[in-house]
Amino acid sequence: MAGIRDVAKKANVAASTVSRALNNSGYVSQTAREKIKKAVEELDYIPDTWLRNLYQQKSAVVGVIINSLEYPYFATVTRFIENKLAEKGYSMMLCATQNSKVRERIFFDMLKRGQIDGIIAEYLLLDDREYQHIQKPVVTLDRHLLDIPLVCSDHHTGGRLAAEHLIQKSCKKILYIEDNSSYLSSTPSYQSCVAFKDTLLQAGITPIPAKVNWKEEEKDYFHTFATKILTQHPNIDAIFAADIPAMALFNEATRRNIAIPEQLKIVAYDGSPWLNQTLRQLTCIEQPFEQLAEKSVEVISALIENKEITDNVSVIPVKFIQGESS
């Protein structure tokens, strides 16, 4: 079987030049590219997908921007994205920004330089103005960004379903957890809180808001947060929260011998597989992780291949899952 040195010898170039051409990781003259392409064809060195990318001077790599894999939502949807990209012949390069704008800028600079073919952004910190002149394939997950294609869950329906469920269960003192930053309040996912609150108000119930700091890096933050919530609000009979705080509140309520669901009902939002780590399954609004990934990959691959996008916004239905916590 031919190796990279065989390709280099036949093309009369250095092996490092062949490597740069195949990985699109540095400058290679057009003449050298043509020689390498011809040698690759004659030696049958690489798969057709790699050969096609060499012809088109593409990397076959899609970047995925998240905040951190510590959050179940990001970990779950990113796993599906990687699988869906592989099915289409792309590799995934992950950028966990850890709330760093510098890391985000570096990743977009790689896109501008052609080191990656496109970006699926699950989490963005930079202002819209910094994306105004990016004429490259970009898809956002759950973030409105200029006229860039958006894929998101039907969060409004998710919030409404959660509220209607708790109303049906005769809950009156209902607390909901929302983010304390301006970032999430500008995303489609925030509509779950808006719809939840509005549905309760229409039923004559005034929900109690509480704010969580998703940027907090303290190891025991969510345990401390749950302890504080249940201490400050000992008479609540229901909670609506994202997976991580919902899990922390479930554990703290159990520690305090608060009967679930008899005394306290909990509805989680996201429904990631991580949620099943509790001894009893939590009732949840489940986001369509695999469908979100599939649609994001479908759109980014179409953009990379210069195909027309029919819908700039794709909204995918959520699902109510009855568990033992309500």
Automatic annotation (TrEMBL):
Domain HTH lacI-type: from-to ranges: 2-56
Protein name in UniProt: Substrate-binding domain-containing protein
**Per its UniProt record, what SMART domains does this chain match?**
HTH_LACI (SM00354)
Q: Which GO terms describe its molecular function?
A: DNA-binding transcription factor activity; transcription cis-regulatory region binding
Record's keyword terms, sorted? DNA-binding, Repressor, Transcription, Transcription regulation
Task: Fetch the Gene3D superfamilies from UniProt.
Answer: 3.40.50.2300, lambda repressor-like DNA-binding domains
Output the lineage of the source organism: Bacteria, Pseudomonadati, Pseudomonadota, Gammaproteobacteria, Enterobacterales
| Keyword Transferase annotated | no
